[in-house]
Amino acid sequence: MASNACGDPALTLARLLDYSLHKGSKDNMTALCVCFRNGKGYGDIGNGLIAGRYVDYASDDKFKKAYIAFAKSHGVEEEELSNLIPRPKTRTKPGLERQFSGVLSQLKGADRSLLLAMISPTATEAEAKKVENANATKDSAHK
Fold it and tell me: What domain of life (predicted)?
């Protein structure tokens, strides 16, 4: 995790919780990070909600209700919440990258990019060809 460290402890904790979910955790999770810093200006920050992943579970009504209730308990109304929810960054079809995770974990660089481009619903044929050409160029340079 140190290699992906960032200056925002909340984001680091969110990454840790996402990693736990990725590994299959089904438990409720709470994370706390204590940073010992100069406390000047602390009161100016205030208390805020950092919205977690929603899109992956939006079809589950029970999850939806709990998510909205949690946001309201932190002073965030449903209309405002939609602006805080992180948008998915994955380019692949839901679950498709997971199906290829064994292969993806073994591939590096251009090979991995090529497979991701091939399974991406948003990738055009030209984009996939561009990645394939880059891969071919890389392979010929190593010969």
Answer: Eukaryota
